Here is the input.
Amino acid sequence: MTAQWVHRWKQAGQAMRRVRLQELRGFKYEDNLAVVDALLQIVHKFGSSRSSSGLVEQHD
Here is the structure.
């Protein structure tokens, strides 16, 4: 039962990857200017500057 469940989820993940790649390859920027612009406006309105890259230094 568990092996079947894992197998099905692996298949679903592969199928979702294929759909995602197909959608990205078919994305036409020109047809989605309003959506892209709205996303950029959200970033501009709510985004903030960072004082660091977010990487954490590891010390020995």
